[in-house]
Amino acid sequence: MVAAPYQHPLAFVAAPESHRDAAGRNLETPPGAVALRLRKVDKRFGDNRVLRGIDLDLEAGQFLAIVGKSGCGKSTLLRLLTGLDQPTEGRVEFLDAQGRPAAGNARIVFQEPRLLPWFDVADNVAVGLGPGTLKAEARSRAQEALADVQLAEKAREWPSRLSGGQRQRVALARALVSRPGLLALDEPLGALDALTRITMQTLLGRVRRELGATAVLVTHDVAEAVHLADRVIVLEDGRIKLDLAVPQTHPRRHGDPDLARIEGSILASILGGD
Ligand SMILES: Nc1ncnc2c1ncn2[C@@H]1O[C@H](COP(=O)(O)OP(=O)(O)O)[C@@H](O)[C@H]1O
Ligand SMILES: [Mg+2]
User: Which residue has a Cα nearest atom 26 of ligand 1?
Assistant: First the structure.
C-alpha cells in the first residue's frame, strides 16, 4: 500500500499565490462566487504527464463534479484549481462577476476532516478564517457556520466526541466560514457509511445553494456527482473525455429516472473505453 503524501493540517487554505495575478499584484477578494478559466493546463510529476492541455470554463455559482478512474488526475486538477499547487504549463485564472481577474479565496474539504484535536469545534471552524480575525468575532462567525451545517449545539465539544459525519460537517463549516469564492471538495463523503452519506449529500447541496459559491466536487461516486452537480466532467489520460450538463432542478430525488440515465452514460464513458 502506498502511503498518502504528508499534508499539513492547514492545507485546506489556498496558497497565497492565488491572491496574486501573473504580474504579482494583490487581488481583491470578490464578495461572491468566482468564475474559473483554465487554458492549456499541463501538470507533470517528473516523466508522468498527469494533465494534458486542459481547457475549462466554469461559471460563477456553477457546481462541477469531476469523475474518473482512480489515479486519473482528479485530485491533481482540484489542487490546481484551488491554488494549492501550480500547473507545469498553462494558466488557471479566477474572474469576478464582471470578468475581471479576482482572488479565488478557495477552500478545500478532504476525505479526512483534519481537525485539530486540541481545539474545540468552534475554534476548529475559526481556523478557516485565517490569522488576523479577533477572537470574539471569529467565535461568532464560527457559530454561524456551524448553524449552517446544523451543528450549532456542538460548538464547545471536542472533535474526538463527534461521529464521522459530524466531523465532516465541522470541516465543511471551516471551509465555509470565510465565505469562499470557490469551494473545492475532494471525495468529502468517501469515508462515511451509506446512510450518513445520503444525509450529507442533501446537506451539502442545500448549504452550497444557500451560499451560492462556485463548487468543484471530486468523487468516485457517479450517482453522487449526478445528484449534486450542474455539470459533470470525466477525466481520462489527462484530458476531459466527457463534459455533460445535468439540467435537473434542485433538490433532486434519489432514484429519478432522468438522473439514472445521465448516470448510465457517464459510467459507460468511464468503463467502456469510448
Ligand atoms: N505530489 C505528487 N508527486 C508525484 N506524483 C503525483 C503527485 N500527486 C499525484 N501524483 C500522480 O499523479 C497521478 C494522478 O494522481 P491523483 O490526482 O491523486 O489521481 P486521482 O485523484 O484521480 O485518484 C498519479 O499517477 C499519482 O501518482
Ligand atoms: Mg484523488
Answer: 71
Which residue's entry shows cell 448549504?
A: 207
Q: In this structure, which residues have their CB less than 5 angstroms from ion ligand 2?
A: 75
Residue ranges around ligand 1 (CB below 6 Å) = 5, 45, 48, 50, 68, 70-76
Please check whether residues 88 and 184 belong to one and the same domain: yes
Print the domain residue range for 265.
12-18+27-105+180-274
Residue type, 210: E
Phi and psi at residue 183, in whole multiples of 5°? -105, 120
Residue 8 CB coordination number (10 Å)? 8
Across the chain, mean pLDDT equals 89
Instruction: Give the span between the Cα atoms of 69 and 58, in whole angstroms.
Output: 22
DSSP structure class, residue 20 = B
- Which residue's CA lies nearest to atom 14 of ligand 1? 73
Other beta carbons within 10 Å of 23: 6
Q: How far apart are CA 205 and CA 63, in angstroms?
A: 9
pTM, rounded to two decimals: 0.89
Provide the CA 140 distance to its chain's centre, in angstroms: 24
Predicted confidence (pLDDT) per residue in 204-255, tens digit: 999 988 888 899 999 999 999 999 999 999 999 999 999 999 999 988 988 8
**Number of structural domains the chain divides into:** 2
Q: Which atom of ligand 1 is nearest to the CA of 77?
A: 17
